[in-house]
Predict the structure.
Amino acid sequence: MADKDIPSVDKAMDTLTEEQKKKLEELIEEEEGVTRKVTGFWNIVITVLAVVMSLFAIYEAVIPLTTQIVRGVHVAFLLAISFLYYPFAKRFKGKVNVFDIFLSLLSFACIIYMLVDFEDFIYRAVTPERWDMIFGIIFIVLILEVTRRSSGWIMPVTCIAFLIYAYIGPSLPSPWTHRGYDLERIVGHMYMTLEGIFGVPIDVCSTIIIMFCIFGAFLTVSGAGKFYVDFAFTAMGRKPTAAGRAVIFTSYLLAMASGSGVANTVAIGSVAYPMLQKSGYDKNNAGGFLAAGGMGAITTPPVMGAAAFLIAEFLRISYVDVILLALIPAALYYWGLLLMVELDAKKFALKAVEIEKKHTLKELTKMYWYHFLPLIAIVVFLVRGYTPQVAVFAAILTCFFSCFLRRETWFTIPKLIEALKQGSITVLNVAAICASAGIIVGIVSLTGLGLKLSSIIISYAGGNLLVTALFTGVLPLLSKIINFPNLSLFKTTV
């Protein structure tokens, strides 16, 4: 007999109170930006733009286009949708105002101006004309504003600091000094070349990351994500460690397809927390356990997080190599979590629980086995030597056609539109950060900072290996400290 205090997957969200749902939404907005919940005309506008953005990415995956066009169109949709989707401030989230409409149209204007005659445009990068400067400055400001709206002040302030660094180079003390660049040179490098905003980060985002986001959206809309959760929970029996094992198994299955730690944690948490609580976990340890399981999505093949695609591009290795390198660390990570489950069983004196099940494992597998096909397809195509874009496109097609094996999972027109929309909406936050990262990468290459940064660190460390290692770890450490509040996602929710 199933324990009636443990909700089924279908009813999990219903067990949350309105206050908990509101708090959960606030925490997600803190991580991914405050978003508008508009209806009517503006919802249609956002949907159309997002669907076109996804269709353009899919088209480019099949029929490659000129690099400048791909990156430019991607950024145009990024800015146009973001100004309608992310409000200027939280108090403006109820409706789209005239200011946001103006910025959205201005975003298209900046890209259209660039693409009208981009061959002559890129040749003027060193000596930009008046209108190049006007549109370039506006474009940089738009990028910074979209990044602020979607991910907060940290990235825009960092970009501004790097821009100032490029301008005041001669005034800086050694070894930070450089020749210095005027406004024309900085704007030209950022806006008119493929070394600034339209550099490698946006290249990866516009070709690979967005395709994986679309793939994830198709899995979600098709019901594959729900199937992975049901499959993992149904596979666990009535044992003291069943709750913890179910969370780890579910986290791993979703991690292979999501690539987002936050999304993974949120998807699992609402279902798993009541079971962990019933099993004997206290609120703090359950929250930490859920976050640890969910965050493994960032390094779990085949999808992984956005950084994996950047690693492949910067190191000039194939994405298959990145997957192979990540297999063992990902396996060890979840193996470590499984060991913690065994230790927790004794530490917390866990009790045996069983989630309410609608089907047996055999029945569930027989009905929805085809949801595993997209994951198999993406791995097979990557191993066969196809590009990540083609592999993901094949996985999307596999997901789409396999869903017609059962009537209840058919891809209707509304479901298809929703999947294409969510694919673009999901990538907005990452794309804005990639565009801002292009500013930083562009300044580093323009000023030569990247070439002498290692010597600067060694110089300040005085030749001491330990101090050198500590200095090298300062930036990642600061990044963790800055984002530390987000680690309490479920601790404060449940």
About this structure: Residues 216-428 form one domain. The chain has two domains: 33-202, 216-428.
